[in-house]
Specification:
One of its GO terms (molecular function) is protein dimerization activity. Pfam families: Dimer_Tnp_hAT. The protein is mainly alpha-helical. It is built from twelve helices and no strands. It is about 60% helix and about 0% strand. It is flat.
């Protein structure tokens, strides 16, 4: 992640990754043949013989996967489950439970002019930050005016949160300005530790380490 990356770009990257996984899953028949050829080349160098696991009448730890060849077996038992699992995990990790944050992305002008989301639904989602808004009751009206302003704009529409914040008049759109400030400061990933700014040496000095409890209490 870049230091100046905003949450809109992060969501776009997530959607792109999920789309790529789904595309690979859709074209698994052709893509897996390429992968399997590379696997066979590596197996030949390592002296591993191509073979499918044996099938028995009773399976307790795994099921018998119907297949007519080793490539068909590994495609059905390894590749397809892996891609399906990745898709499910990505969708669960970035699910609609964070819909309040996704509604904030509606404020970006390049999105709001093409978005089919109802203003009432967007307003309801943004009211999650009602306590931070100066005039929460007028948020719906502001959103309508914000959308109309950019639909009639002849200049290039801001395509990220920072540009949208710079183009937002705080006096005309106080609620939207506050929401854009909130969105621009939402963290994308966990905080990083800056070891160069550590205060441990200033707190736990050599003198402090050798100081007895009695003197420390007196100080």
């Amino acid at each position: 992640m870049k230091r100046d990356q905003d949450i809109l770009e992060a969501y776009m990257m997530v959607d792109e990754v999920v789309g790529n996984i789904k595309s690979v899953r859709k074209n698994i028949d052709s893509d897996f043949q390429v992968w399997y050829k590379q696997i066979l080349d590596l197996s030949e160098k390592l002296g591993i013989v191509e073979a499918s696991p044996r099938k028995t009448s009773i399976q307790r730890n795994r099921s018998n996967i119907p297949s007519c060849s080793p490539i068909d077996h590994y495609k059905k038992s390894v590749a397809i489950p892996l891609l399906d699992s990745l898709t499910i995990q990505m969708q669960d990790q970035f699910s609609d439970e964070d819909r309040h944050t996704r509604h904030l992305l509606y404020l970006v002008p390049s999105i709001i002019v093409n978005n089919t989301l109802e203003l009432s639904e967007a307003t309801e989602g943004m009211l999650f930050w009602e306590n931070d808004l100066p005039f929460p009751k007028s948020l719906g009206n502001e959103l309508r005016r914000w959308q109309i302003m950019w639909q009639s704009a002849e200049k290039e529409l801001p395509s990220n949160l920072l540009f949208a914040l710079g183009a937002c008049d705080e006096d005309a759109f106080p609620n939207i300005h506050r929401l854009l400030l909130i969105t621009c400061t939402l963290p994308i990933n966990s905080a990083e530790a800056e070891r160069s700014f550590s205060l441990v040496k200033q707190i736990k000095t050599c003198t402090r380490s050798t100081m007895c409890k009695e003197r420390f209490s007196d100080l």
